[in-house]
């Protein structure tokens, strides 16, 4: 029988990787193959990792995870040749990808013989302003979905989930809307229990010209950062950012890495692993719409974060 595919889509920072992490950590005996764009963001508990080779991480619970590099169809073909084959394949798209194009690729007759697109899941930050659904890319991600999962409800205000559900209904999409606390979604909704059930027909629509809408800017430093100064810098950059993430040491806590995430207007910090030898003391990747943020402006703002003395308090807070 063909292997069912779960396609996970959603905008930058929506929480897609959190959902995939939860699926892999709670596989319940299923052999799941996860194909992800940002391989390093997968953070399965260390005791689950059995080994890694050829860009594939094997997990002790029978799952595997590999990086989506190059051609999607070639990656799927490699997975389907594994022995034993996976029971399910999960594909996490880029936050700036139009899922209609990926659906179209999965309709390739060669793939259809061995793998069928079963479910499209769109992960959406519950705190997203409803007006954001007027964005063409986010509408496309929403309209191709069978299920919409509302993430980060714990970070949003009390009425956010209700407002987002109303905004989704206003888009007249047929998708089921569910809550996804900490990335958890009932597995029965995502994985078919009847192998003879045919997947829903897919009509991705006409192919549209590719549009480069976002750009990635990187910043590194060989010195630790001042946390108050970083807060001030992120407050200045926030209106221009779609997403940011990185690792750095602070002068306040030398020798300890912090994991930085910025999405949906919110910045968070979490403790990370010990710094690896030979890597910069700080490295952050920023994603912004083309032309909104120059490298010179970014470098100027971030240079003020490098610690030579304690900065003053203030700026955007970290959750």
UniProtKB/TrEMBL annotation:
Residues 214-306 form the CobW C-terminal domain. InterPro entries: CobW-likC_sf, CobW-like_C, CobW/HypB/UreG_nucleotide-bd, P-loop_NTPase, Zinc-reg_GTPase_activator. It holds the Pfam family cobW. The keyword Hydrolase applies. The keyword Hydrolase applies. Gene3D superfamilies: CobW-like, C-terminal domain (3.30.1220.10), P-loop containing nucleotide triphosphate hydrolases (3.40.50.300). SMART domains: CobW_C (SM00833). SUPFAM superfamilies: Hypothetical protein YjiA, C-terminal domain (SSF90002), P-loop containing nucleoside triphosphate hydrolases (SSF52540). One of its GO terms (molecular function) is nucleotide binding. Belongs to the SIMIBI class G3E GTPase family. ZNG1 subfamily. This is GTP-binding protein. It comes from Bradyrhizobium frederickii. The lineage of its organism: Bacteria, Pseudomonadati, Pseudomonadota, Alphaproteobacteria, Hyphomicrobiales.
